[in-house]
């Protein structure tokens, strides 16, 4: 059932108003209560060295929990607070230049606490939060649903350490019943997909859901005998950031464990019979490559930066000694 503009306004206004309030609050959280935030893998950090601005930089927390900084190299960041990390960086830099006593670390991208929003929303993408808000606020952050959105069948793919599970939410029913607070909660790493009206009434029919690192995520018709590779092709193929060895198939049944597939390995076996077949209602999720490999060349550039920064510190230190 498509919704009228009046219904759209009723659904859009709450998340947009939440965004207007939450936006500054989230910024304040990163600046005002930084000591309460625990840095995680994937977070983007801005490191400001007050007494030596040439050493200020930005860094992304790698999968091993470390960041790579000029002059001092790798530093453990995951599990630290911004203020605590700043103190540790200042301590290590002061070994090279005693003038350095203050380093500020700011979280500029909350990628360790992010939710992907795809489908019929104004601005699809991956959104980071200091704290994950509710479904309405997340949709509002993505600009709200488009007029073609089918809110009676919003799909949430939960990602956690035990694999992915899928949940279908009738958002219209929650809104019209005046019970948005009873909506399912979201967790870091979740994916929210809002289907279009032309994709409607798909639940229970011969369709497959394809999300993650594909070029055109969405709901696709499932022909008899179709396999995972065919589903990926229907979704436009995988993106440059995709990890083709981390493709998961999630069954509609909560009693069936997600199946992880290494597509290149199966293809190299030379037999399409080994590629798993799909069933109606299955969800295919393509994972993302490790931050280490996707940022390999950036790290090479940072190594060059470290060498030049060490030279800068060396000369700064000797100038400092000479003027004492």
Automatic annotation (TrEMBL):
Family matches, as InterPro entries: Poly_export (IPR049712), Poly_export_N (IPR003715), Soluble_ligand-bd (IPR019554)
All copies of domain Polysaccharide export protein N-terminal, residue ranges: 34-107
Any one GO molecular-function label of the UniProt entry: polysaccharide transmembrane transporter activity
Limits of the Soluble ligand binding domain: 115-165, 207-251
Signal peptide location: 1-27
Domain of life: Bacteria
Keyword field: Signal
Statement: the UniProt record of this protein carries the keyword Signal: yes
Name of this protein: Soluble ligand binding domain-containing protein
Species annotation: candidate division TA06 bacterium SM23_40
Record lineage: Bacteria, Bacteria division TA06
């Amino acid at each position: 059932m498509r919704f009228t503009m009046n219904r759209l306004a009723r659904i859009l206004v709450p998340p947009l108003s939440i965004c207007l309030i939450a936006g500054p609050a989230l910024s304040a959280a990163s600046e005002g209560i930084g000591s309460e935030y625990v840095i995680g893998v994937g977070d983007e950090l801005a490191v400001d060295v007050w007494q030596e601005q040439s050493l200020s930089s930005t860094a992304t927390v790698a999968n091993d929990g470390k960041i790579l900084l000029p002059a001092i190299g790798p530093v453990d960041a995951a599990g630290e607070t911004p203020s605590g990390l700043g103190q540790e960086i200042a301590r290590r830099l002061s070994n090279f230049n005693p003038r350095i006593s203050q380093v500020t670390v700011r979280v500029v991208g909350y990628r360790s606490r992010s939710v992907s929003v795809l489908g019929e929303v104004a601005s699809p993408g991956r959104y980071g939060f200091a704290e994950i808000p509710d479904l309405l606020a997340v949709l509002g952050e993505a600009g709200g649903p488009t007029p073609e959105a089918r809110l009676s069948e919003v799909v949430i793919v939960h990602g956690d350490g035990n694999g992915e599970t899928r949940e279908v939410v009738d958002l219209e029913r929650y809104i019209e019943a005046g019970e948005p607070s009873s909506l399912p909660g979201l967790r870091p790493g979740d994916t929210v997909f809002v289907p279009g009206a032309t994709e409607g009434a798909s639940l229970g029919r011969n369709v497959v859901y394809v999300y993650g690192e594909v070029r055109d995520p969405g709901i696709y018709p499932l022909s008899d005998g179709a396999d995972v590779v065919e589903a990926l092709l229907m979704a436009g193929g995988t993106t440059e950031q995709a990890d083709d060895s981390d493709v998961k198939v999630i069954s509609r049944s909560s009693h069936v464990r997600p199946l992880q597939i290494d597509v290149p390995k199966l293809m190299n076996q030379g037999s399409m019979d080994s590629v798993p077949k799909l069933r109606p209602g299955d969800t295919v999720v393509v994972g993302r490559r490790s931050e280490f490999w996707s940022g390999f060349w950036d790290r090479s550039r940072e190594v060059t930066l470290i060498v030049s920064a060490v030279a800068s510190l060396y000369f700064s230190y000797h100038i400092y000694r000479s003027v004492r």
